[in-house]
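Changelog-adjacent note: as of this version, every example in the card shows the full chain rather than a window. The one below runs 435 residues end to end.
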Amino acid sequence: MTAHTSTESETEASSGAGGTRPFAPFEWMIAGRYLRSRRRETFISVIAGFSFAGIMLGVATLIIVMAVMNGFRSELLSKILGINGHMLVQPIDMPLTDYDAVAGRLETIPGVVSAIPFVEGQALISGPAGNLGGLVRGLWEADVRRIPLVAENIRAGSLDDFDAGKGIALGTRMAQELGVSLGDNVTIISPRGNVTPMGVTPRVKGYPVAAIFEIGMSEYDGTFVFMPIVEAQGFFRMDGKATGVEVYVTDPDLVGGMRSLVEEGAERPTFVTDWRQRNVTFFSALEVERNVMFIILTLIVLVAALNIISGLIMLVKDKGRDIAILRTMGATRGAIMRVFLITGASIGIVGTLAGFALGLVVCLNIESIRQGVSWLTSTELFDPTLYFLSRLPAEIDSGETITVLVMALVLSLLATLYPAWRAARLDPVEALRYE
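Full-length structure tokens:
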């Protein structure tokens, strides 16, 4: 036994000193032959195929799901902040009667893009086809035009002479559900009405539809109604006063550091809140869901990596005679280990690259794919009334994608270590004893 071990060590030492270098062409050639299927090795080839498919689908699924989650967050954030502002300034102690002056002072603060005073109130919107609860917001025409989500998405009518009180602007979904189009009248009913001996009577007034916009977020397209600020002040009995001032900044992620500047710049008692405080529950839920989905879908890649282990172990058992012959011909343990490392790593690397390509193609065409599947199945796969958005978004983050690819490659390479080690430790004498 001792003589055999010393002879084996001498063989490996001589082969390593004057033999082939690591990852020599013959190692790649043998690994390539092991990857190609033969009739009696069909079962092993099937396992390798499933491993490849598992890695590919796992990587593609991770990329697609993370891109859709990023798209959801980005789209919702842009819609919510595009119409509501990044910071809300509300009065304390006394009504906001100097709203134009306050807005002017806030716009001089570095980092503030615009400050828009508004009057806001809830009301019942009535049309020929039904009634809807809505959020009526009064703005100056110039301020409405400074909100790109509204001004750049007018589907019918225009905002010309908006301050003259010639009509209101509402969303496409609200127009459809009320059964109105451009020029039709809608009735707005506010519970804040006139006080009479019989009690408070609701305030009711009709307005023509001057413009119809489509933000792309069904919740807003079916809720918001814009009217001239002077008209809104009269309708909600807020003569000369505003509800607050919406502040838009250059970087929404830096609103925390700008709060003190906004409070000082207002030069009056105010209560300032930012978009994170107003939407903390919503975006926290999105972040938790995104992290959980990443963990769950990573298990797909892990299962595929385990398939690589099982497939290589079976390959090692099947190729025991070949390994023994290679060892007796002078192949070192390191060479045998590298052969099986190349075999398993090839499945993981090619599967990862194929998954990346598949995920990229699906992400770039996800809306077309959704429409095609909806057409084939005659079902609504992405109902805007449930998911808020009118289209399925996907936004690929390069950092996350690289993380997914590196994780898949690392798992695939780790999965090859044990089978390759077993192949390298195979004793040629024991393998050939019964041949």
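Structural remarks: Residues 1-18 have pLDDT under 50 and may be disordered.
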